[in-house]
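tool_call: predict_structure(chain=1)
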Amino acid sequence: MQLINEIFAPDPSNYCIRKKYSIIFPVMPKKPNKSGMVTRTPAAVPSDSAVVTKAALRAADILHIKDKQFARIIGVSPSTVSRMRSGTSPIDRSQKPFELAVLFVRLYRSLDAIVGGDETVARAWMVNRNTALDSVPLELIQSVSGLTNAIQYLDARRAIT
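tool_result:
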């Protein structure tokens, strides 16, 4: 009965909440072993596909990138992005969209480091013309070459700061 109650009404002490990004990480539950000592059982490890899908969608949400634009960035249809959001269709690790999603997350992390976590500045950078890139970054990253150029630019900027 206790197991059923934990499934339908999980104990909030089994979760660690990181407030800045509203991410919930499961904490390993405590179980007594044969000698009566309490040990922790390993939590389920999510797949690479699920992690990259969630990270890429979260980065797109933070940067206020619409699903149609995000679909062009990672090379899928808008309906696939919708299925990704519902959790029914994570990005397949063996496909090109997975690699592009990883690059997009890398772009987001570099930008986040440069702006010091200021989401407003990051959003402004994405939609305003950049003279060094000679384009609006959001338009530029919708092609593979543009995405890699923007990442190279941000990596160089991080080296300066």
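agent: Residues 48-160 form one domain. Proceeding to next step.
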